[in-house]
Amino acid sequence: MNFNIAVFPGDGVGPEIMSEGIKVLEKIGDLTNNKFNLKYGLVGGAALDDSGLPLPRASLDIASSSDAVLFGAVGGPKWDDPLAQHRPEDAILGLRKFLGLFANIRPVKVFNSLLNSSSLKPSVIEGVDIIMIRELTGGLYFAKPKKRWNTSRGRRGVDTLRYTESEIVRALRVGFELASARSKKLASVDKANVLESSRLWREIAIEMSKEYPEVELENMLVDSCAMALIRTPSRFDVMVAENMFGDILTDEAAILAGSLGMLPSASLAGVPKENDKAMGLYEPIHGSAPDIAGQGKANPIATIMSVALMLRYSLGLNEPAVAIEESVNEVLEKGFRTPDIAEAGASDILSTEEMGRRILQTVQIKLG
Ligand code: IPM
Ligand code: MG
C-alpha cells in the first residue's frame, strides 16, 4: 500500500529523534512492501524563524493531504517571550483543532528492565500497563470567552470550561472501545462534585455504559484519581478524562514509566476500532529539550514507539507495530540505555543514533 505521511520535526531535539523514527519507518516499508511518501514541513520555532508563523499554510496543506502526521517537538528559549504574538506551542494546538484530533491516547507501560528508573518503588509500578485517553479539542483550552482585560478594580482573566454532549460522547466512546478490547475496565475522571460540565460528563458516561455491558465503568473524582494513580497504579487499565484533567494526569502517569523519553502518544480524529483507521498525529510526549539538543543524548524510543502507534491506529499495520514494541523491549532487556534511563555507573550508554540503530536492527530480524 501507499501512504502519505506528514513529517514535522520541529525544534530542539525534534529533528534528531525524528530521524531515528523515520529510519525505522522506512525499513518497515521495505520489509512489508508498503510505500511511505514522506512530506516534510516546518512547525513551531523553526517555522516562526522562517515565516513568522508557527503553523504556516504550507504545513497545514501537507497535513491535510496525509494519512497521518509525525510530530517531533516545538519550543525553546529563543521563542519564550511571553508578550510575543505567536508561540511555538500554537503549532500543536492549531494542528489539533485543524485536523479535529479530539482524542489523545497515551499508553503508559512499565518495562520490567526499567523498574529501577522510576522515582516510585518497583513494587508499586511493576506490571503497570495503562492507556490514558485525554479529550483534546474542548474544555478550557479552546472554549470562549478566553481573554484578559482591565477593570477599575484590577486585571481579570477568564477561560471557559464548556463541553457539548457530542464532544463528551466521542471522547468517552474511545474509552469504552479501547476498554472493551483490553481488560474491560474503564475509569472516567471528572470533578462531578463541583463542576456542571463534569456532572454532564458523568451522566453521559453512565448512559453509554449500557451500550457496553461488558465494560466495568468506574467514575472517579480527579483529585482522588491523581492520588490513586501514584499509590496503586496497577489498579488502572483504560482511563478517560477531559482536556485539562487529562493534561495533568498524563504527565503524572508519565513518571510511572521512569522517563518522559519512553512515552509515545497518538491524537486521533476518529474512534479506533478493529480494522478501522483514523487520521492521527503521533508525537513523543517529551518536549523539545533545548538543553540537550544536538548532542545525541535524546532518547529516540518515544518517537519510535509513536511510529508504532501510527502504524496501528492510522495505517492498519498492526504486525509491524507489535514488532517495534517488542524490539524496544528486547533492546532494553539487553541492557542498552540512553542517558535518561541509565542507572548510575551504567556502561552501555548509547547515543540517540546508536539506540535507534539497535532497535532498527531488531525490527529487521523480526520482520525479515
Ligand atoms: C501536552 C502539552 C501541551 C498541552 C502544550 C505544549 C500546549 O502539555 O501535549 O500535554 O497542554 O496540551
Ligand atoms: Mg501536557
Q: In words, what does this structure look like?
A:
The chain is an alpha/beta fold and 368 residues long. The protein has two domains: 178 residues, Isopropylmalate Dehydrogenase; 140 residues, Isopropylmalate Dehydrogenase, CATH 3.40.718.10. It has a ten-stranded mixed sheet with strand order 2-1-3-12-11-4-5-10-8-9, sandwiched between helices. Strands 6-7 form a two-stranded antiparallel ribbon. Helix 1 links the parallel strand 1 and strand 2. Helix 1 packs parallel to helix 12 and helix 11 packs across helix 12. It is globular and about 60 Å long. 47% of the residues are buried. Bound molecules: 3-isopropylmalic acid and magnesium ion. The site of 3-isopropylmalic acid (IPM) has 4 residues, from helix 4.
Explain the layout of strands and helices:
Layout: E1 2-10, H1 14-32, E2 35-40, H2 44-51, H3 57-64, E3 68-73, H4 90-99, E4 103-109, H5 122-125, E5 129-135, E6 147-151, E7 154-158, H6 165-180, E8 185-190, H7 196-208, E9 216-221, H8 222-231, E10 238-241, H9 243-254, E11 264-268, E12 280-284, H10 301-313, H11 318-333, H12 352-367
Parallel strand pairs: 1-2, 1-3, 3-12, 5-10, 8-9, 8-10
Antiparallel strand pairs: 4-5, 4-11, 6-7, 11-12
Helix pairs in contact: 1-10, 1-12, 6-7, 8-9, 10-11, 11-12
The chain binds 3-isopropylmalic acid and magnesium ion.
Magnesium ion (MG) is lined by residues 247, 251.
Enumerate how many helices there are, as a single number: 12
**DSSP strand tally:** 12
> How many strands, which pairing sense, and closed or not: the largest β-sheet?
10 strands, mixed
| Beta-strand residue percentage | 15-25%
